Amino acid sequence: METEKKSSYNNRCAVQHCGAKVDDGVTFSQVPKLDAGKTGTVDLLANLKARQRALWETALGKVVDMSVKNLWICSRHFIKGKKARITDSSDPDWVPSLNLEPSEENRPKRTELPQPARKPVEEMPTKQTNRIS
C-alpha cells in the first residue's frame, strides 16, 4: 500500500531544487528505510528494501541529503505520480526518475564578481652587463 501523507521534512519535497509543498496539491512518498535487525520471513522484503534504497540513493544522491532519517519525495518525481509497490521492482516508478536535476531556470546562477582594477605592469629595470670583447 502506498504511503501518502504530509512530509515531515519541513512540509516540502526533499529534492533540493523542487520546493513542492503539501499545500501544492502533490502527494508525498517516503524514501525507503532499511529494516535493521529484522529476520525470518521478512528477509525477502528487507532485501528488496535494501536494493530499492540503494537505487534511490544513486538516483537522489546529488539532490537529497540521504543521511536525514525521514525523507519524503513528492509525486512530481514519479512517472505515475507515486512510488511503486516494494514488490514490483519492474515498475519504472520503483525509483524516482523525473525532475531530479535543476532546470535551467532553477539552476543557481554564477555571479560575476567585480575584478579589482589591474595596475599597469611597470617595466622592470634591466641590468647592464659589461661584456668584454
TrEMBL record:
SUPFAM superfamilies: Glucocorticoid receptor-like (DNA-binding domain). Keywords: DNA-binding, Metal-binding, Zinc, Zinc-finger. Residues 85-133 are annotated as: Disordered. Pfam families: THAP (PF05485). Residues 11-105 form the THAP-type domain. GO terms for molecular function: DNA binding; zinc ion binding. This is (northern house mosquito) hypothetical protein. The lineage of its organism: Eukaryota, Metazoa, Ecdysozoa, Arthropoda, Hexapoda.
